[in-house]
Amino acid sequence: SLSAAFWEYLRHLGLQDFPCGLGSWNKSCLKGRRSPRRVQPGQEEAVLHKESPEALLELLRDWHSPWALPPDCSPQDQLLKEVAVLAPELIHGSKVCQVLKSLRMVDKGVEEVDEGVLQFQQLEELILSANQISRITSANLPRTLKVLELCCNTVDDLQDLCAQPPPELQHLGLGHNRLCSPSQDKFLTEDFWPNLISLDLSFNSLTDLLGLVSQLSSLQKLRILVLQGNPLALIPTYRGFLVDSLPRLSILDDIHIGPDERQQFHGLARQPELSRSEAQVVVSVGEMKGVPDPRTLQQLDVGSEAPVITYNYFVTYEF
């Protein structure tokens, strides 16, 4: 589950180890106590040798330090490490869930977004790329969520996700999954995603261009759309039909839509017959080695009784 993967991630992050946490090295462990223990004779020196949070923080930031965070660490790692120094009381138990507004769990073997995710009450961004999620229950997603990225999973059905979708979601990433037309098109409307600005559906198995456009046209705030890698992108009029059918779009397949392009494809949306779900693929065989050339005619002497040998080949393509 996502919760189990998160707690395992925290364990490996070592937020209780020097220079983080409420260890004896941190002066902040003396703060906030209602009745500080009386310092016994001989203990004054030990208290003085505790490090200030600022000094401990420097050990994380100075690249000469053996405790420095690696240059390629994520902002999430850096945030949690620094919080564990400056406010170590926040990393105990479920309090740590209140610290994060962005949670990135990439390639952690997550199969389920469980109910424990609701502890992240401030969460606005959830990145779950390269996991093994086939379905996601929207009731387990924080209502504050604005970005949900599910790229490179095995999502094949959006019904559970659309049961109670986060109302403020602005980006939905479903690239490199297993969505098919027309069964999933009906879940891509304003009824489910009233504030959606960006939608990534690239590299799925969507084939019904006309049906998909009829649903996407209800997304009044949609400005960025990615559909490349789907079979419907092979249709010759694919881009022009989308540009003219969705006039609010600013970017299609990572390419900006300018005024000239809109003018070029103006009126194409009123000619759906040009956007039939058909495509022509031309395959050329450049060179084949190790077989006789069928174009070479065998040279025979006049009157020879030797048999004539001919060669024929065929190539099969499976889509």
Automatic annotation (TrEMBL):
<dbReference type="InterPro" id="IPR032675">
    <property type="entry name" value="LRR_dom_sf"/>
</dbReference>
<dbReference type="GO" id="GO:0005737">
    <property type="term" value="C:cytoplasm"/>
</dbReference>
<protein>
    <submittedName>
        <fullName>LRC43 protein</fullName>
    </submittedName>
</protein>
<dbReference type="InterPro" id="IPR001611">
    <property type="entry name" value="Leu-rich_rpt"/>
</dbReference>
<keyword id="KW-0677">Repeat</keyword>
<keyword id="KW-0433">Leucine-rich repeat</keyword>
